[in-house]
Automatic annotation (TrEMBL):
Subunit structure: Homodimer.
PANTHER family, alphabetized: RIBULOSE-5-PHOSPHATE-3-EPIMERASE (PTHR11749)
GO molecular function terms attached to this record: D-ribulose-phosphate 3-epimerase activity; metal ion binding
Binding site for a divalent metal cation: 38, 40, 72, 178
Phylogenetic classification of the source organism: Eukaryota, Metazoa, Ecdysozoa, Arthropoda, Hexapoda
Keyword annotations from UniProtKB, A to Z: Carbohydrate metabolism, Cobalt, Iron, Isomerase, Manganese, Metal-binding, Zinc
Protein name (database record): Ribulose-phosphate 3-epimerase
Function: Catalyzes the reversible epimerization of D-ribulose 5-phosphate to D-xylulose 5-phosphate.
Entry superkingdom: Eukaryota
CDD domains for the chain: RPE
Swiss-Prot/TrEMBL GO biological process terms: carbohydrate metabolic process; pentose-phosphate shunt
A Pfam entry, by short name: Ribul_P_3_epim
Keyword Zinc: yes
Cofactor notes: Binds 1 divalent metal cation per subunit.
Length: 237
């Protein structure tokens, strides 16, 4: 049986934009070819920084009615914010399993019941096998390739082993990577098996974001096609 085709999706990290022009920057990224927006929500507890919450997301949704919104919830109590984010028009709610190890399945269920897709995220220090028991409850797994909550970090090459393991175990799973993703690193991510990419400064800071997104998409599609061909060749008839 042939595997379903993996789709490349590039999500600019709104965190790296000018917050005073959040609406303008978000629309500019979508107009440049972004598949949807990745909104980092930080509470100052799970990570030391603070960004914005559901009121800002609600405002964006009131102005941008058709785009897909993913919130990356870097918060200590993800269950608390499920309903507010759903009411604000979020499409996918991605949370860290490290924050609620005893209730991950409950949070997944609540997210889905609230009408959102489920994303589960892993910090760099968390073993990838920790997500095994939750894959059936999620639509996507996010592998952090930098420490959550900070910008300007170095690309963690060893995180590609996590991506590679996930792709081998779950050929049809949506796998997202976040942290120092740009033209120089996206090939390594795609070759490991990621198909969803959160890119910050490389896109936000570019003179021509559309050209950067297009370049990265071409790189990813080439790698995904190679993965797909390899997968088909390995299918037992």
């Amino acid at each position: 049986m042939a595997k379903s085709k993996l789709t490349c999706k590039i999500r600019p990290l709104v965190l790296n934009s000018n917050f005073s022009e959040l609406l303008h920057e978000s629309q500019r990224l979508l107009d440049s070819g972004a598949d949807y927006l990745h909104l980092d929500v930080m509470d100052g507890h799970f990570v030391p920084n603070v960004t914005f919450g559901h009121p800002a997301v609600y405002f964006l949704r009131s102005k941008i009615d058709k785009a897909f919104f993913e919130t990356h919830m870097m918060v200590s109590n993800p269950m608390q914010w499920v309903r507010p984010m759903a009411d604000s028009g979020v499409n996918q709610y991605t949370f860290h399993i490290e924050t609620c190890q005893e209730t991950v399945v409950d949070v997944c269920r609540k997210v889905r019941e609230s009408g959102m897709k489920v994303g589960v995220a892993l910090k760099p220090g968390t073993d990838v096998t920790a997500v095994e028991q939750y894959v059936d409850h999620a639509d996507m797994v996010l592998i952090m390739i930098a420490q959550p909550g900070f910008g300007g970090q170095k690309f963690m090459t060893d995180m590609m082993n996590k991506v590679r393991w996930l792709r081998q175990q779950y050929p049809e799973l949506d796998i997202e990577v976040d942290g120092v993703v740009g033209p120089a690193s996206i090939a390594a991510c795609a070759e490991a098996g990621a198909n969803m990419f959160v890119s910050g400064t490389a896109v936000i800071g570019a003179k021509d974001p559309k050209a950067v997104i297009s370049q990265m998409r071409d790189t990813v599609n080439t790698s995904l096609q190679q993965l797909q061909n390899k997968s088909i060749c390995c299918v037992e008839l």
